[in-house]
Amino acid sequence: MDIEIDLHGLTYNEVHEVLMNKVILHYNKGNIPIRIITGKSEKMKTIVREQCKKHNFKVNDSWDGNPGVLIIS
Q: Contact 33/4 with Cβ under 8 angstroms?
């Protein structure tokens, strides 16, 4: 899994504006799964999960046990 989207440094509003554009762009190129680096913020993870659910993407916790990463498929 080589594709990562790092949300560090983005505000919650910025994540609402840019996350799904990036996810859909990678999806359309066949770059799935995608690692979303959220940090440990539960609010950031909630935003990612909600946005992905709206667009029918599956979200899982990181396979390597990293609590600051979500996996989009």
A: no
b/e per residue 63-73 (b: at least 16 CB within 10 A)? eeeeeebbbbe
- In total, how many domains does the chain have? 1
* 16-61 confidence digits (pLDDT tens): 999 999 999 999 999 999 999 999 899 999 999 999 999 999 999 9
Q: Contact at 8 Å (CB) between 71 and 60?
A: yes
For residue 20, what are the domain limits?
4-72
Q: What is the tens place of the pLDDT at every residue in 14-23?
A: 999 999 999 9
0.70 surpassed by pTM: yes
CATH number, domain at 21? 3.30.1370.110
